[in-house]
Each structure stands twice: as structure tokens, then as C-alpha cells.
Amino acid sequence: MEAHAQSIAEAALVAQQGDISFFSLFWQAHIVVKIVMIGLLAASVWCWAIIVDKFMLMGRTKRQMNRFETVFWSGQSLEELYGTLHNRVNHSMAALFVAAMREWKRSHEGAKPAIASLQQRIDRVMDVTIQRESERLENRLLVLATVGASAPFIGLFGTVWGIMTAFQAIAASESTNLAVVAPGIAEALFATALGLLAAIPAVIAYNKFNSDVGKAIARMEGFADEFSAILSRQIDERG
């Protein structure tokens, strides 16, 4: 307590000199508040890394869908398109197409083609592929949601702790001068500011990417329905 009272006095001297920087507020804070600040800064950096990664991923996914739809509806035969794509690492619509065509070709191999329940199997493999793509696109979005929901409360905890410690130190110094009170309150409120700094971008990014993922999944489901109808007609014609 005496050590923190001394830090309050030093903060008051700094305030009188007009130099209250973020670094000085952090350096003079209680150890618990420092841990909270470091954790919030780390969470903010982590969230920004996820935001950049997801921004690039969603942009790449949209471009892949556009390119595949252009090729798919260009009139190229399904066999040729499958021959081009089946040895690649495919995502989104291309992954749906390859999964369905692979099941189609397997069912027609051998002396006795297994086409009795082919339509159901194709629908099932496309559903599984959509689920996998959904998990890939939604990966680490939970981190953004968690930081967005908890960071303000963590920052508030640091603020409450810092204010309690500051008031105790002020009482020990037996001084109510504004120059003594202000630095302690400022360093405590700095924790709340860091909590909001981490939470606001995380919440905005989570809402945006969650919407983008929903739109991407809806496009894949629409393509799956259309492609399933195409294969269903071919199954009926061969039957």
C-alpha cells in the first residue's frame, strides 16, 4: 500500500508537469490492473489477426465461387470439369461439385452400377461438404464473439480494482488534492478504454463475418440444389 501511495504521489508530480501518457498510466498501475491491460492488449492483437485473416478468406471464397459458377455455366461438360478439379484442393462450390461427381462416378463403376439410391447419396455427400465448408469459414469466429462480449467486463474489473486501490492509496497519503486523485482514476479508467478497444472491433467484425458466412453457405446450398436437380435428370434418363 505504501508503494502504491508513493506511485500515486509520483503520478501527481507527473500530472502537475502535464505529462500523463499511456505508458506512464500503465507503469504506475497496480499489478492486477497491469495484468488486465496486458491481457486486453493481447486479445486486441489476436482479434485483429483473425479479422485480417477472415477478411482475406471471405474475399478469396467469394472470388472462387464467382470463377467456378462462370466455368460451370459456360457449357463445359461435367466430365471435363471434374477432370480439371478432382486432383486439386477445392473449397466452396468446387468442393461440392467434386464430392457429388466422385460419388456419381463411384456408383457407375463396376459391372453392376449402384444407382438405386444414388440421388440420396449425392445429396448426403453434398450436405456433409457444406457442413465442412461452414466449419472452415466459421473457424475462430467464436474468439471474436467471446472477446466482444467479455472484454468490456474485464476492463471494468480492472477499473474497479484500480479505483479501489487508488482510493486506498489516497487515504493513506491523507491528501484529496485533484492532482493526487486524477492520475489514479485515469490509470483505472485506462483499463476500461482498453476493454472497449478490444471489444468494439471484435463485435463489428463478428457480425460482418457471420453475415458473410451465412451468405456463402446460402450460395452453396442453392448450387447444391441446382446441381442435384441436374444429376437427378441424368439418373432418370439412364434409368
UniProtKB/TrEMBL annotation:
Residue stretches making up the MotA/TolQ/ExbB proton channel domain: 115-221
Main location: membrane
Entries under InterPro entries matching the protein: ExbB/TolQ_transport (IPR050790), MotA_ExbB_proton_chnl (IPR002898), Tol-Pal_TolQ (IPR014163)
Domain of life of the native organism: Bacteria
GO biological process terms, semicolon-separated: bacteriocin transport; cell division; protein import
Annotated localization: Cell inner membrane; Cell membrane
Transmembrane segments: 31-57, 141-164, 184-206
Keyword Cell division: yes
Membrane topology: Multi-pass membrane protein
Entry GO CC: plasma membrane
Keywords for this protein: Cell cycle, Cell division, Cell inner membrane, Cell membrane, Membrane, Transmembrane, Transmembrane helix
Listed Pfam families: MotA_ExbB (PF01618)
Record function comment: Part of the Tol-Pal system, which plays a role in outer membrane invagination during cell division and is important for maintaining outer membrane integrity.
Family: Belongs to the ExbB/TolQ family.
Subunit structure: The Tol-Pal system is composed of five core proteins: the inner membrane proteins TolA, TolQ and TolR, the periplasmic protein TolB and the outer membrane protein Pal. They form a network linking the inner and outer membranes and the peptidoglycan layer.
Name of the protein described by the UniProt record: Tol-Pal system protein TolQ
UniProt source species: Roseibium aggregatum
Gene that this polypeptide is encoded by: tolQ
